[in-house]
Amino acid sequence: MADAVQNMNTEEYRRRNPSRSLEEIIELMKEHGIKFEICPEQEAIRRLKRNNYFRLSSYKCNYVEGNTPSKYANLDFAYLYDLSKVDTKLRKMILELCINFEHEFKTQLKQYLDDNDDGYSAVSSFLSHQTDLSDSHRDTALIDGFIKKLETPFLKNIVKDDVLVDPDHPEWFLQTCPYWIFTELLDFGKLIDFYEFIFYPENWRKEPMEKPISKGKNEVGELHKIRELRNACAHNNCIIASLVPEKTSGKDFLFLTKDVQAWLDKKKDGDFHFSKNMKKVPVLNRLINLFYWIDKIVPEKKKLEVLQVFCDDLDTITDHKDYYAGNDYICNAYNFLLGLTKKLLTSG
Prior knowledge:
17 helices, two-stranded parallel ribbon, 59% helix, 348 residues, globular, mainly alpha
């Protein structure tokens, strides 16, 4: 496919991929083996008027027939439509887990800094490390971004007397922003960077500092996988477009650290068993990391509360489980996720 695209010019590519009417899209789907038995064509057209075909069709990857990527087996349009609703519900459920985890992550980081920082040194050192204020050509984009956040109506009145803010003097923000405000300004990616900066002492202190949350060697990578999952859910991406395990196990995005793998292996028993291929499904790989961190740092009562809600919602996520009875990819992914959640609820 890539070679073919490379050999055609833009106009030719556009001719091969024209804008189509909904009726033409239905015919194209039929050519690819998608049926309209449960959901008639006229009803499918009505639904396509309210839903982006590009998004709905993405779930067809779970029904690829053999080695023919454009031919789909045992696939009715109704399945695609239902999977889109399942995906929407699942994104909301996962985002709720991520928000609860992020809150606890911030809380424990703040508790550590309460005991190990004067209120300002950690933030000042972090920003100085990322923004060289001694350079006449200094890059203050990072601090400028924080200053703009502080000027939004959601934060302006709350912190107006707690931080010195002046676009002409970004160094004031660097010197006067305490960590209890700073952590609330960070997106999750920058929060992970701040965490990494603090607990890799060679960046700013000579003496080692014990890591209060997790002692795994690759924890930063684990956290960034959670960030990817959180952002995918928050940005409304199709997270179950493919539940087919990736064939190349050496890819970094499918890697589980030794700590996470050992944790997962301990969950396996006669009641909960699963294929090693589950970690090769991108969304499950990231959910494994999220559940691992929730299990490690969220207080027991809160953990059981959020996981029970997730489990209950997952159990009733669709009224059409019969649609997927013959699809191993979907059934295996669902059973794995439900089984892991129940395992955490019963055994911790």
